[in-house]
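Supplementary Note 3. Input sequence used for the single-chain structure prediction.
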Amino acid sequence: MPPSYPVRILGTGTYLPADRITAADLDERFGRAPGSTLARSGVEARHWAGPEETSSFMAARALGRALEAGGVAASDLDLLVATSAVPEQPMPTNAVLVLKALGLDDAGIPGFDVNASCLGFLVALEMAMLGIAAGRYRRVGIVASEVASKGLDSSDLETSSLFGDGAAAVVLEAAGDSPGVSGSIDALRCATYSRGAHLCQMVAGGSRYNVVTPPPRPEDYLFQMDGRAVFRLAAEKLPQFLAGVLAEAGCTADEIDVVIPHQASTLGLRYLRDRLGFPAAKVVDILAGRGNQVSASMPSALHEAVSDGRLRRGQRALLIGTAAGLTLGAAVVRF
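The predicted structure, written as discrete structure tokens, is reproduced below.
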């Protein structure tokens, strides 16, 4: 069995945009029958970013709160990893913009971005975990920030009713650096099944289709998803994948204290409870009030669990989710 990594979560933080958009608001805005948005998504409200609430703006505030919760300063970081499905701009990276927003212009702290769509946080966690365990870094900030609202097709009820904006962050350190406090990451695994590559995509906006080489349709700049096909493929692969992660961590599903999922959809969260067998009381479900915040969903749910006391020091959490690809990801974390 692979070893546990002596890495602990020092602090968490989130940022939600000021503008709260209800399902009824979207019905009215997009000319839908009353109740259509809520019935399709199960999302009662979500927050959408205003003009000044850029990806780096939100990320800097979420990371600042995580640093405050951990009792450390931004200058104490040895590395910053930022993640988003769509960054604020192609260059420089969100990490550079966040470091600047934190006033670290000349600190020399390395920073880079990770893009693994909805599982960006989990991939960043693995990179930070390995760097800390190897002794390369002592303390790492990870921040996920998403402005999904800018890429939605209002004519597509499935996607335009589901997504919200926001940012969430964690600060990690080598376990044992704080007296009397330990923690570990006991397993972390991702698996990509690229036959699902076409199920969640934004076709334009990269080097293939852009303002120089326009796409066939203007709508190709917007997010497209076949939610039912994503669910079928995920449901096919998840049971065996999860069994492997739990075996690697040396625990059973019953020994998991809190389940922290990516807030993919009401169907996905129901699958965790009904098909994978996790009691509803253990599953952190914030979808109704936040929507799917892409890579910020999982760390937002983690912050919620820490803030309301569901996840306490010494307890074991399962972080689990899916992403475009189709990619599955999960980690077992001793908080």
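The CA atoms of residues 10 and 178 lie 9 Å apart. The chain has a mean pLDDT of 94.
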